[in-house]
Amino acid sequence: MRFLNKRALVTGGASGIGRAVVERFIAEGAAVAIADLEGEAARTFTDALRARGARVVAVVGDVSRIEDAERMVAEAVAFLGGLDILINNAGIETVGSVTTARDDEWERQIAVNLHGVYRMSRFAIPELIRAGGGAIVNVASIGGLVAVREFSAYGASKAAVIQLTRSMAADYAEYGIRVNCVCPGPVDTPLLERACRRVCGERSPHEVRQMYADLTLLKRIAQPEEIARCIAFLASDEASYVTGAVLVADGGFTAQ
Ligand SMILES: NC(=O)c1ccc[n+]([C@@H]2O[C@H](COP(=O)([O-])OP(=O)(O)OC[C@H]3O[C@@H](n4cnc5c(N)ncnc54)[C@H](O)[C@@H]3O)[C@@H](O)[C@H]2O)c1
What we know:
CATH class: Alpha Beta
CATH superfamily: NAD(P)-binding Rossmann-like Domain
Structural class: alpha/beta
Largest sheet: 7 strands, parallel
CATH topology: Rossmann fold
CATH architecture: 3-Layer(aba) Sandwich
Distance between the termini: 36 Å
Strand order of the largest sheet: 3-2-1-4-5-6-7
Helix content: 40-55%
Bound molecules: nicotinamide-adenine-dinucleotide
Order of helices and strands: EHEHEHEHEHEHHHE
């Protein structure tokens, strides 16, 4: 029970990796606020968790909008009675090179994946300080470490999240706040399915998915729970001497 009496806010907690993080936190004793744009999905998930006895709330909004970020953190704190952990996981995928990506999609990519991390952190950090310290885990991507064709805006947003993680680790260490990030490789979630459909061209989405699996040393796509375990480690006291770190969980994609 690593998270007994801990209070966590998980963005993008209604689907994929975020959903697996919420499950893990609750299994290990945390009370959780799920911040997500998809209100219905977040509330349905919350209802199912409450039926199992979990202390959980859905806070609905867009992490990239400053007024939504402020309100979601306030709603989470009102329900949880404070905040110890922030998981900046919400993200979207935009496909295209610099010349083929749509301008509005480029803007939206940076707004959600980068500004969302900044805005949620901006309002959550004073709460972590009030709690006497805490942990933040940002979900970046191997797309922020190496070039993945057709993901220029996505890669730029994730590289920025990696560097922002280090800046935040430096700025808030004195308050007892550790800030780390996880860089997953391909993970079996709706985001990956959408990405495969969008870049497949002449190939089938299944072929693209297999291509990503073949690019890893382990020759498979990760399950969301495998990434959730890495995030939970960094968020827990087991990682008490880890801050400003980048944990790559990619089945060996970037090792070659
Ligand atoms: N799936 C992968 O292969 C993979 C690989 C590397 C990194 N990641 C990263 O992991 C994170 C989670 O991705 P996933 O694969 O679980 O995706 P997903 O699409 O399954 O889930 C993302 C969740 O974020 C929410 N969301 C999206 N935009 C939002 C916004 N503006 N405000 C609030 N909520 C918003 C969605 O509603 C959804 O519930 C993302 O940051 C993604 O970039 C995913």
